[in-house]
Amino acid sequence: MDTTDRKLLALLRKDGRSSLSALAAELNVSRGTVQNRIDRLTRDGVISGFTVRVTEADDPHAVRAITMIEITGQKTLAAVKALRGIPEVRALHTTNGAWDLVAELHAENLVEFERVLRGIRAMDGVSKSETSLLLTTL
């Protein structure tokens, strides 16, 4: 990834519905360049998908959580790839200390949250996890 890729990702994070023309103008490149970069970033797994985010007030049943994950052995890359493929994993971070990864989870409701959490805990290489629900954003 180069500087243009990073700027493109930042623009898409800000507004994933931006048109190719608007992105191209902002980046000072052609529409074709933007399309090719999005295609490459998607193919390479940097962009794992596109989704709609709603505010908490508009989605009172949504469940948000932080999950700390411990990975066994040399399975971190495989775990990261698998976690990035889960739409409910909104962000994934490496960290220091007792945990290897921190995942920010957003699910539609408790049933979906439990399904996602069960799937993460069953992943090859995940030896332990600890989850904290996020209640109110201040």
Outline the fold blueprint.
Blueprint lengths: L2 H12 L5 H8 L3 H13 L19 E9 L4 H9 L4 E6 L6 E7 L2 H13 L3 E9 L4
Antiparallel strand pairs: 1-3, 1-4, 2-3
The general outline is globular
How do the SSEs run, as a string of H and E? Answer: HHHEHEEHE
The chain-level structural class is: alpha+beta
Low-confidence stretches: none
| Largest sheet composition | 4 strands, antiparallel
Radius of gyration: 17 Å
Q: What percent of residues are in strands?
A: 15-25%
Mean pLDDT: 90
Task: Specify the helix fraction band.
Answer: 25-40%
What is the count of helical runs?
5
Can you list the strand order of the major beta sheet?
2-3-1-4
Number of strands: 4
CA-to-CA gap between the ends? Answer: 34 Å
Describe this structure in words.
There is one protein chain. The protein has 138 residues and is α+β, with helices and mostly antiparallel strands. It contains 5 helices and 4 strands. It is globular, with a radius of gyration of 17 Å.
Keywords:
four-stranded antiparallel beta sheet, 22% strand, 4 strands, 138 residues, alpha+beta
Summary, kept brief:
The chain is α+β, with helices and mostly antiparallel strands and 138 residues long.
